[in-house]
Amino acid sequence: MACRRGLVECTAAVDRHICNGVCGCCGALRPRYKRLVDNIFPEDPEDGLVKTNMEKLTFYALSAPEKLDRIGAYLSEKLIRDVSRHRYGYVCIAMEALDQLLMACHCQSINLFVESFLKMVAKLLESEKPDLQILGTNSFVKFANIEEDTPSYHRSYDFFVSRFSEMCHSSHDDLDIRTNRSPSPLQTTEKEKESPAELSERCLRELLGRAAYGNIKNAIKPVMIHLDNHSLWEPKTFAVRCFKIIMYSIQPQHSHLVIQQLLGHLDANSKSAATVRAGIVEVLSEAAVIAASGSVGPTVLEVFNTLLRQLRLSIDYALTGSYDCAISGGTKIIKEHEERMFQEAVIKTTGSFASTLPTYQRSEVMLFIMSKVPLPSLHHPLDTGRAGENRNRLTQIMLLKSLLQVSTGFQCSNMLTALPSSFLDRLLSATLMEDSEIRLFVLQILISFIDRHGNKHKFQTISTIGDISILKLKVDKCSRQDTVFMKKNSQQLYRHMYLACKEETNGRAHYEALYCLLALTSIELANEEVVVDLIRLVLAMQEVALVNEDNLPLYSRCALYALGAAYLNLISQLTTVPAFCQHIHEVIEMRQKEAPYLLPEGVFAEKPRLSRNLDRLGPEILFRQSKISEVLGGSGYNSDRLSTPYVPQLTDEDRLSKRKSIGETISLQVEVESRNSPEKEERAPAEEITYETLKKAIVDSVAVEEQERERRRQVVEKFQKAPFEEIAAHCGARATLLQSKLNQIFEITIRPPPSPSGTITAAYGQPQSHSIPVYEMKFPDLCVY
């Protein structure tokens, strides 16, 4: 090594001797810029740059800017030669000279000089010496901080981006070399103490902060590729951190571009592992919340559409047990718990993003999600078969979970516009489905909608509390919009609550949800009419448990008794009618003594107290409708309505019930109508409804509509084109016919026929004819409007 070092020094001395000799003989023949460049290099590189000669070179460059490109080329030539000969001292001097010239010269010719400068920086970065790499990096940092008057589009920085990225991932054996960097005059003392991670974060923030609209995608795509290549989606901590930096660094109006990139990346990875998809969804959740505070643009429904599509794919993967892997090209066996984790991540993301949206957008999102829930109907049949049923059930549960997340914390001043009939009809129809989990989700969603003052947590447990003032309920007067909403939808809501309480698969959670729904309706949406109807509804629930026509289990019957006691205890204290409160209190006290299994404290305990003697209950432990009607009627409530038992109207929605098919439901309605009609003796027996009958009815109805449409067209055409005399004659004939019919009616009214039973005996034994009232007469069809 000593011999080699001596040989190198000897060669350098010979070179300098020859150069000095040549310069001594022919110095006047060398260009001046070369002589000035040569003079800045000392005999010994340890002496550093010759400052006086450097000042001469700088003055010459400023005086003759056209020579800058030649100066740069000559310096570049010397640096490349010194690098190849390992003269690193002279390399440092050359770079220092370049830096000073670059900082001092600002003119049109600087672009030509920059090309030589970048060429020398690239040469240093290509070296395997860490010191040279750091030297080139610091020079590039100085160059990057120079403000140029006009951008230079002809330059290419691809090599530098690639090389700097490679250096960031250095795998050098020496840890100090891997993380060391020399001090730079552009950096303060505090910044010198930054770790590589902190420095890279600052660089990323500065880069994204300057990104324009058209460059956002170019900045985001490499980040996602990096996360893909290094499997950094799965721990998701690093990925979430990266995208938080991105979202807080870019301009707010560009946030939706990041969301679009993530959505596209999620779709592109739809066949990747569930852990990867879950990581992307988690990142999307964090990014979407930040973007919503700025500008989301047109991507609101796009976010939910993509999430719901991924949710359906995950359900299919879980049912089939495998999917085609996008990376290996083969079939990958799925892990059920990983798919479940992904599904929960999607649902969480749905809720967290929706929570940042304004009310009108949340309403649109809820309508969108509800439209995706597969519900049985005549127009949209569900998938059949065992696999189809499983797919339908899982899809219903997952979408309703998502809807529950979106509805949590939902508040609106006008529920009539926020919850249109198209949404409410579909949601309430799900309460008639066989699956108890689905029914519970629907009840919880309704609770979220109605609870606008945060009272629902105060009704999580059912109890007969003696003083409800300790609950500190937030109660406002029912607004006009709420009154209109209840007038339109109250009967439909009562009906579904009534039918939901009769399901034999109900558990404790279902009755707690029903109690909470009743209580919140009384607080949020109740006026006097609503209070009366809710009391009638709860008394009807008590009647369901008492009569037990549906053969409910013992627990369900006791739960209905307990539910009624808890609600009537609450509503009696809300109405503050003393006689009403006294009656409810007396019945509760009697139950505490003789039938604790009819109170919520006994039924909804960890170990329920039940009794089989429910068919021999005394009247003193039941809430009596006549008594309640009497005490509330005396306080101004509608006693007639209170004394009328609640009976829900049957509708076509019963086709969703597990106990009735479509044909059975329609047949049942026909029977109910005939049973309740005063003329049932004159009616024919209810016709059995079959598929052929329905098909024929549909075809006939279409034909009747076509005939009616044609008849109307002819009438309009006749009155438009027929002569006046013809129209007058036609109307005169009809007027004559109408007059004759009216004369018949008057004659019947003046001389009524005898009653169907002949004669009835008056008080004094004299026969007396009985006339039929006018409102019971049968008029001809012509006279009936």
TrEMBL record:
A Pfam family recorded for this sequence: EFR3_ARM
Coiled-coil parts of chain: none
Domain of life: Eukaryota
Region of interest: Disordered: 175-198
Sequence ranges of Basic and acidic residues compositional bias: 189-198
PANTHER family (UniProt xref): PROTEIN EFR3 HOMOLOG B (PTHR12444:SF4), PROTEIN EFR3 HOMOLOG CMP44E (PTHR12444)
Family the entry assigns: Belongs to the EFR3 family.
Official protein name in the record: Protein EFR3 homolog B isoform X4
Organism for this UniProt entry: Gekko japonicus
